[in-house]
Design goal:
single chain; about 200 residues; alpha+beta; Hypothetical protein af1432; 2 domains; 8 helices; about 35% helix; about 15% strand; elongated
Amino acid sequence: MVKQPLLLTQKADSLSVQETQRIQRHVDIALKLLEPIDGIDEVCLTVIKQHHERLDGTGYPDGLKGEQISQYGRMAAIVDTYDSLTTSRPYRDIFKPADALKKMQDEDLGLDKELLCKFIVCIGANPIGSLVKLASGKLAMVMRLNRLQPLSPVVMVFYNLTTKLDEVAQLDLSKVEDEIVGSISPDDFGIRLSVFLRQSFFTQ
């Protein structure tokens, strides 16, 4: 990508067909730069070749599908997509890590879902102790991770934005009709964590 013009890589507007094709050439440029170097592992070259390929055939440069894409290529596609979503871009706002992972899991982006689930488990979509907002309008703290469904941990609810009241309850999001819609900061809602912890653990 460093071989591409800054006016192209930093463009805030939508790219034309010709501009998109030029950007996509960064894969070929990288291969030409690295292939002549002695000692470059074949796995590295495979990652470069396939990190933009997608299981549904919508990727580039070769439009590979399904089993045509190596496991290394599938892994690289997940990492590259996550990096892209969580990195500032001139044409869109940055995604919070949890929001990026939710988008990757919910939308059909041509990614390997099984590997994506393992990726989420590895990096922790919502680590224990992180504060989250639920679809129901409740605020909660992540208490326990769910290895089988990493985006559905056990949480401790402490406030309801709808009723504007404190609400202390433990929820296993893999067993109820609710889900995490984003991560939050204590400052976003004036949360006093000491009060929450006292309510959640010492009054039960």
